[in-house]
Amino acid sequence: MSEFLSQDEIDALIGGSKSSTATEERIKEKPFDFNRLEKVKKGGFQGLEVLFERWVKIFREEIRIEFPVVNMVSKGKIVTMRFGDFIGKIPLPASYTIFNMKPLKEPSLLIIDSRVVFNLVSALFGGGARPFKIEGREFTKLEIRIIEKLVDVVLESFEKIWKDVYPIEIERKSIEFNPFLVRIVSHAEKVIVAEIMIDIEGLEVPLIFAFPQMLFLPIKDILFTDTFGSEVSSEWRKELIKKLLKVNLKLTLELDKFSVLVKEFLNYEVGTEIILSKKQFEELDLKVEDKVKFKASLGKLDKKFAAMITKTIKENGDGGNG
Fold first, then answer.
1. Strand runs (DSSP E) across 11-155, as ranges?
2. Which residues, in sequence order, are bridge partners of residue 211?
3. Cα 202 to Cα 199, 205, 207, distances in angstroms
4. At residue 158, what are phi and psi to the nearest 5 degrees?
5. How far apart are CA 210 and CA 179, in angstroms?
6. Would strands 70-82 and 108-113 be described as parallel, antiparallel, or unpaired?
7. What is the reported pTM?
8. All domains in the chain, ordered by first residue
9. What is the pLDDT of residues 121-174, one digit of tens each?
């Protein structure tokens, strides 16, 4: 049994094998060119800019839990354009999630580009990320499950980031695959478009939000200001520090880490001996929330196992004596 699917199996799984695509009607991919969109004067969306910068940091960690093949998430441009022009430039197939941000009234849109889906499936099954050709076909059942999971992670994390700005409740209305069914505003009305870039094994692919321009009118004094996020009161800072000091941290002392074949793992049972590569007095990694922060020596204290920190690990990877 092979560890990974072959490339032909990956192509067949996502519907992209040579034999199946030869007879399919190809739709020429049209890149979503943000340079042609209407630019917003500097500082026009200061609040949204800061909010999305905060969100990508949270989303980056959460998406990597569900999809470890994601390397990085970064904020792209935030622009405005007419809805009709915007929706017509999305390469097909694509998924369109309509959602509400209660108590704000107008519905918004989350677009997941097919390149996100194809590359997630390919990378997860060992095929790697690569520039797929966009085809005029529907998503497979597997791809739809990937889309649904990705939408959940996006919207749940997006709701969290609004908590300290303007508490909202995100309600997912539907996931559509036909652009004619996602008319959140008239084609002549303008929408605020926020582009997010997802790096999957070195290949950047887009994820896009679209908000009706009128959506944020009730909170324009909060979002559309040059001072959004720049002023922090001393009382707020003290309260934040107080809460941070009460946060529980997960500490993990890693004895060893290695990989085994599935056929070997299936033979594990009570009494199976696992040989570790670490020597008796070798320093071990002490992790804080899955990041190595210290080196430690394992020993015993009062008949219990104990670890003594011997070195701190700096951000650049260099160590220092503790």
1. 70-82, 94-102, 108-113
2. 192
3. 6, 10, 16
4. -65, -35
5. 13
6. unpaired
7. 0.59
8. 7-243 (3.40.1550.10), 251-321 (2.30.330.10)
9. 888 887 777 776 766 678 889 999 999 999 999 999 999 999 878 889 999 999
